[in-house]
Write a structure and sequence with these properties.
Layout lengths: L1 H50 L6 E4 L4 E8 L4 E7 L2 E6 L3 E4 H9 L1
Antiparallel strand pairs: 1-2, 1-5, 2-3, 3-4
Membrane topology: Single-pass membrane protein
Protein name: Sec translocon accessory complex subunit YajC
Family: Belongs to the YajC family.
């Protein structure tokens, strides 16, 4: 009788660990599809925008500064942005995040 109880306990523990592994895989899959994958897509979209910067585009920097691109230096990765008439600042290419014209069109829809 005790051998049957011990065998049942051993079998139950084995099934419990299998369900735990399945649950952990399911949690990881949910995190991947709802958190990691969308962030990767957004980062790829921002990187494509940064690589296609051109003079005359109105942009927003990471600090929330709006301005117009005056000069793009791809060798050093520095963008010169005019934030007011005659006021030009240098910004790293990686900190220019959005195109103002595209944002305004999306907001007006």
């Amino acid at each position: 009788m005790t051998q049957i109880i011990l065998a049942a306990q051993a079998g139950g523990a084995q099934g419990g660990s299998m369900s735990f592994i399945i649950m952990m895989v399911a949690i990881f899959a949910i995190m991947y599809f709802f958190m990691i994958r969308p962030q990767q897509k957004q980062r790829k979209k921002i990187q494509q925008f940064q690589n296609s910067l051109a003079e005359g585009q109105e942009v927003v920097t990471g600090g929330g500064i709006y301005g117009k691109v005056k000069r793009v230096d791809l060798a050093t990765g520095i963008i010169e942005v005019e934030i007011a008439h005659g006021v030009v600042i240098k910004v790293d290419k990686n900190f220019v995040y959005d195109n103002v014209a595209a944002t305004m069109q999306t907001a007006q829809k």
